[in-house]
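Exam revision sheet. Question 4 asks you to relate a sequence to its structure. Input first:
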Amino acid sequence: NSGDSDTATKTSSGNTETKDAEPKTEFKVGDTASFDDKSITVSKVQRNFDTGNEFAQPESGKEFVVVTVKITNDSDTALDFNAFEFKMQDSDGVQQNEAFSALTEGKLNSGSLAAGGKVSGKLAYEVPKGDKGLKLLYQNFSFFDNKAITFDLK
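Answer key, structure tokens:
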């Protein structure tokens, strides 16, 4: 029965409808995601980040998380990058943009990378304190099918 073999295939691969040609979209800290002539690596995650600024503090019950990312231009033409292409998703599925007040230096901003160029920078987010299900999402403005690259920050 072909239905049984489909089920076995789905179970053994761990998710449904996986084709060899489909690019991987989920990564862990330290992994490098390569796609669309660029590579992105999440190299560090800092929980309970202290801004050192009494006026830039997380709300009650929340904490700042700082993620260090590296972007490499693997193409032979210039590549734009933008901090707004990254979002933090918490375990409730809430996606948010960067908490700009949390960082004063080392931020990933926006710009252009020459062919073969690399940039590293930090992104800060305000998340529920102790949340164990945090994910950093990367979605390029040119992705028409709403695909996102996900970095599991456990």
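Marking note for examiners. DSSP finds one helix and eleven strands in the chain.
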